[in-house]
Amino acid sequence: TPAIYWIRKDLRLTDNRALLAACEDERPVIPVFIREDDSAGALGRAQAWWLERSLARLSETYEQRGARLILKSGDPADVIFALIEETGAQSVFWNRRYTPDGIETDTALKKKLKDADLQVESFAGHILHEPSKFKTKSGGPYKVYTPFWKAFSAEASVPDPLDAPEKLKAAKKMPESEKLSDWGLYPGKPDWAADFDALWEPGETGARDRLERFIDEIAEHYASSRDRPDIEATSMLSPHLALGEISPATIWHRINRAKNLSSENRKKFLQELVWRDFCHHLLFHAPALATKNWNDRFDGFEWADDDKALAAWRKGETGYPIVDAGMRQLWREGTMHNRVRMIAASFLIKDLMIDWRSGEEWFRDTLVDADPASNPANWQWVAGSGADASPFFRIFNPVLQGEKFDPKGDYVRRYVPELDAMPAKHIHAPFDAPKEVLEEAGVTLGKTYPKPLVDHKAARKRALAAFEKVKG
Ligand code: FAD
């Protein structure tokens, strides 16, 4: 009898334990992706764009190997029991997910399947180690990254990635699939296609190519350049990881095997990759990570209720070029350089004093790598409300950050064309530039480029005063 393999954020055939278990001993397999109607399956618009393409590729890959991807909508338990009834399948496999909603759905379904005397098994693979694996000496979760990394590296064993099954067997009675085009996952608005298509190749092949290119051309200056948004210096693997088109174990072992990497670059990269595990560790132990301050002292923080400022931040019209470049990169390309994410997030939270949850929500909707663990964990990290947080009083100065990490202003020019002719010396603070410089560059503040929304120095003072009240 056939087995059902329930696909979630694991849109790959390589290193996929659930798929391998399903097709063991040439058992016919029914790979099914379910468009869940509740929050467990909810995705932002940018990731919906990605998912649509990734599912199309995955469907082709299954066809090539002799199986067929089945698409269904609805409550997973209803869908799976209907498939069992229709096909006579006796077993169900999936790879684990770690969001609170996901865990709840999966646990309930597992019980239901077991109660019905069906075989059900789940597997690890979305992160390097299970989120509950590492415990502090006192038995609790890690709240600080460095000791987590130490515990992680002491473990040393990341399971070897497994090959994709060469051939798959379709079930004799294959169920009907819904049509991807009928789903309208990404309705075509906003019109992202041009810029997204030029930059991204969703799917397993795209993920593997990205990794190889990173190793061949970029990784050898990773440690020294990863903070520079003007240089191509990071892997851009995050959206592929977010939807599981490549497993972190595949990346881990491939990076360890790459001969051209210095130990410094290798270690730095692996440390970043393990941040992803750390974020999942935090989410696992604090399921309300996206909605609740980890540190409840922040519950009394007096956030500003300023829709106009929030809208300007989203559009990249704050008058601070590095922030605006980041926010426009996000809108155009569905991503933003990590350093600039920190600067833009700090600006929203501290200069505008807008609740970090508004920023988290916007990122969730517009990032192709939006991740239910990494996004809130990093937002709380910047806010200072998180477990391992940068302290609230560490407030990025957007001008100095720009000058340090985008020294020639190339990153700003790429995304804020109205500042194209500004000289490097003034590009990060056009509001302080002499009149002649602005004139020569064709910049009229308030007309061709916005005046700053706030004065950073004053805003900083305001934020620190608000922080004093909750500091305790
Ligand atoms: P690389 O530098 O090549 O790093 C390799 C991999 O390590 C990344 O693909 C990613 O999986 C992981 N990684 C690196 N840094 C982090 C980090 N700080 N936290 C967790 N994992 C990390 N990352 C997401 O994947 N999804 C998000 O929704 C997300 N939201 C963020 C929100 C804010 C406010 C901030 C400051 C950071 C956020 N990050 C998020 C982390 C980081 O910015 C991205 O992972 C990184 O920019 C992706 O680019 P890359 O793949 O080229 O990274």
TrEMBL record:
Free-text remark on how the cofactor is bound: Binds 1 FAD per subunit.
Annotated site residues (Electron transfer via tryptophanyl radical) in this chain: W303, W356, W379
Binding site for FAD: Y222, T234, S235, M236, L237, S238, F269, D369, A370, D371
Start and end residues of each Photolyase/cryptochrome alpha/beta domain: 1-128
GO MF assignments: deoxyribodipyrimidine photo-lyase activity; DNA binding; FAD binding
Record keyword tRNA-binding present: no
Co-factor(s): FAD; (6R)-5,10-methylene-5,6,7,8-tetrahydrofolate
Reactions catalysed: cyclobutadipyrimidine (in DNA) = 2 pyrimidine residues (in DNA)
Highest rank taxon of the organism: Bacteria
InterPro entries: Crypto/Photolyase_FAD-like_sf, Crypto/Photolyase_N_sf, Cryptochr/Photolyase_FAD-bd, Cryptochrome/DNA_photolyase_1, DNA_photolyase_1_CS_C, DNA_photolyase_N, Rossmann-like_a/b/a_fold
Annotated GO biological process: photoreactive repair; response to light stimulus
Keyword Cell cycle set for record: no
EC number(s) reported in the record: 4.1.99.3
Pfam assignment, any one: FAD_binding_7
Keyword entries, A-Z: Chromophore, FAD, Flavoprotein, Lyase
Family: Belongs to the DNA photolyase family.
PANTHER family noted in UniProt: CRYPTOCHROME (PTHR11455), CRYPTOCHROME CIRCADIAN CLOCK 5 ISOFORM X1 (PTHR11455:SF9)
Name this protein carries in UniProt: Deoxyribodipyrimidine photo-lyase
Species lineage: Bacteria, Pseudomonadati, Pseudomonadota, Alphaproteobacteria, Hyphomicrobiales
